[in-house]
Amino acid sequence: MITAKSAAAQRRLPATVRRAAASLVAGGMALVGVGLTAPAAHAAEGDISFSNVVLNDGKPIVVGLSAEVEAPLTYTVKSSVSLDDWWVEAYRTNGSTRYLLAISTTQWGCGTSSAGGYTFRDCDETMTIDPDGMPGGNGNHLVNSDAAAWKTLGTAIKKNGGYDTDLLSATVRLQRASRIQNTNASPEPVAKGKPITVTGTVQRANWSRHRYDNYGDRLVKLQFKPAGSSSYSTVKTVTASSTGYLKTSVTASQDGTWRWRYSGNTTTGASNSSGDYVDVT
């Protein structure tokens, strides 16, 4: 039913522009700081509906302290009326205020088709997320409580001046970035059959305080890549100390690179440490 995506001109619409447009059309959707006063939820109208909403290919979005993150967004909007514009946003609510996730969205194109009196638009977009330019309880940046499932809404602006805003069922999980610092495998070189000690420290982004903190009591995999190989395999799983410190010993058997891998959890993204090569003599 949906055709291949068209080669429509790329556009980048700042979220503030979209919010302002929604405010003008919706009347009651007044701007409140960087959020919107949430209108009453209502079911999708028969002349417009949104479906097939997928954010970041169904995977969590992992965000650090300052770097902007881009995430793909695809959806279908179905309408029996002419539209001036349409979009899908991820949001959270705080009282009567609805906060939007993306600071801007690039629409690459919408493939169109028609059937049964409806126009179907299969849209391909990219959301841009800025941890330093986000709403939250601590000013214009993410806070730790934002590491959660964000809901979605779809808005369509009709050519006759009306609008339709529908709360959707799709969600996307936002996660705090993790990292593993100070990875070291020693001694270097080491005699075959002798112990190698591998250390490191697990950390994760603290959005509320804008820093990385040590992340204790995590299960972390120690992985090894033999010289000449392109892939790592897990050797053992180690529990970090209460302060995030990692330390374990293995027996030296061949040249290769050692690293740590943390697999993440519902609030925290996965990460790999840098590798440390050890020559076995």
Features:
five-stranded antiparallel β-sheet; single chain; 281 residues; mainly beta
Mean pLDDT: 86
Distance between the termini: 64 Å
Structural class by secondary-structure content: mainly beta
How many strands appear in the DSSP assignment? 21
**General form:** elongated
Beta-strand fraction estimate:
over 45%
Q: Rg to the nearest angstrom?
A: 24 Å
**Residue runs with pLDDT of under 50 for 5 or more positions:** 1-44
Count of alpha and pi helical runs: 1
Main beta sheet, described?
A: 7 strands, mixed
H-E order? EHEEEEEEEEEEEEEEEEEEEE
Side-by-side strand order of the widest sheet: 2-3-8-7-11-12-5
Helix percentage? under 10%
